[in-house]
Design a protein that fits this description.
There is one protein chain. This protein has helices at 2-15, 21-26, 49-53, 55-60, 78-86, 97-105, 148-159, 176-184, 197-204, 214-222, 236-241, 243-262, 264-273, 280-286, 297-314; strands spanning 39-46, 68-75, 92-96, 110-117, 121-125, 139-143, 169-173, 190-194, 209-213, 230-235, 292-296. It is α/β, with parallel strands linked by helices. It contains 15 helices and eleven strands. Helix 7 (148-159) links the parallel strand 6 (139-143) and strand 7 (169-173). A six-stranded mixed sheet has the order 2-1-3-10-4-11, sandwiched between helices. A five-stranded mixed sheet has the order 7-6-8-5-9, sandwiched between helices.
Length: 332
């Protein structure tokens, strides 16, 4: 009798009141979450309007995507910027558009993904002038001899019937700070000045004004809205292996630029907090005339081609010594 009871108990335990072990296992779903490899993005930008376009990202460091960490760095020297890119040490960078072209000719693996700084140069003076033609006979302070500012301004002068080497005197300074110092002190009365330095200059020299908007001058002689002075480039290998991350980053960047224009006061505070050389009030006042907007490469290509064509005609070395190739641009 005891043996019979023991056998019955074992049967009940095994059957689980009518359920087999196979039934139990059938109801268990074994799922494995795909492993997302962590990735760190390195983003660099030079001082001035390039870093200003992503100042919100520098300060807030928003999440780009799952398991993606982003590191931001502002660089004061163009030489350091170029060196970092030649060594492919960055995943994204805001660069002078012509530098992107130069890198392409050196087979450095970056593509233009869009443009965001659409012209920042103005003719500042204490005199009353309203047209390019009125610069005839004047002495104009400049920066970037043989480089983009020089090429762009000479093109505008030529298209307005002025010979840059005969009809006026172009005096070159080492950089925006030296140019600003000489204008503020009255050593020169005309200067081709970039924002946001221009805003600081207008406050420090009484009677000075941004008499000519060179973005409008460019539009008049080219038929284009403006010129893509700075662009965002992306490492080609990243675009190939992680297009979703690239898309997410560019969307965040576009939102950052839009926020900048809507919140100039807060953007100024952010900029000053990064210790980039200008106070918040100057940045706040400068933003409306900095022409900052993100335009994806497929929409900016016509403007990019025209701008780089002008630079190439002026001095092929500015864009790497070769005509512009469509391989320069990121294809979606």
């Amino acid at each position: 009798m005891k043996k019979l009871l023991m056998v019955m108990m074992i049967v009940l335990l095994v059957t689980g009141c009518g359920k087999t072990t196979d039934d139990i296992y059938d109801k268990v779903e074994v799922t494995t979450e795909p492993t997302v490899e962590p990735i760190t993005l390195k983003v660099i930008a030079p001082y001035g309007t390039p870093v200003l376009t992503m100042v919100k990202m520098f300060v807030e460091n928003p999440e780009i995507s799952e398991n993606v960490t982003t590191e931001y760095e502002a660089l004061q020297s163009t030489d350091v910027l170029t060196s970092e890119l030649i060594n492919e040490n960055a995943d994204f960078a805001i660069v002078p558009t012509n530098l992107a072209a130069v890198l392409a000719t050196k087979d450095v693996g970056y593509k233009i993904a869009g443009s965001s700084v659409w012209g920042v140069f103005y003719i500042v003076t204490t005199e009353e002038i309203t047209s390019i033609e009125e610069l005839k006979g004047k002495r104009v302070g400049m920066i970037g001899k043989g480089l983009t500012p020089d090429a762009m301004f000479r093109y505008i002068l030529t298209e307005n019937g002025l010979n840059p080497d005969e009809d006026l005197t172009l005096e070159y300074f080492s950089g925006s700070s030296e140019l600003a110092t000489n204008f503020i002190s009255g050593q020169i009365d005309y200067a081709m000045m970039p924002q946001p330095v221009l805003t600081n200059v207008l406050l420090k020299r009484e009677g000075s004004t941004a008499a000519i908007d060179l973005q409008e001058s460019w539009a008049e002689v080219t038929g284009m809205d403006s010129y893509p002075l700075s662009s965002i480039i992306v490492k080609e290998s990243l675009a190939e292996t992680s297009p979703d991350i690239v898309e997410a980053f560019l969307e965040t960047y576009s939102e950052s630029v839009a926020w900048l224009n809507e919140n100039p006061a807060e953007a100024g505070v952010y900029y000053e907090s990064l210790d980039l050389g200008l106070p918040a009030k100057i940045i706040e006042k400068a933003i409306p005339s900095c022409n900052l907007r993100f335009v994806p490469v497929d929409e900016a290509k016509e403007d990019l081609n025209k701008f780089l064509e002008v630079l190439y005609t002026f001095n092929p070395k500015i864009v790497g010594g070769q005509p512009i190739d469509e391989e320069l641009y990121l294809e979606k």
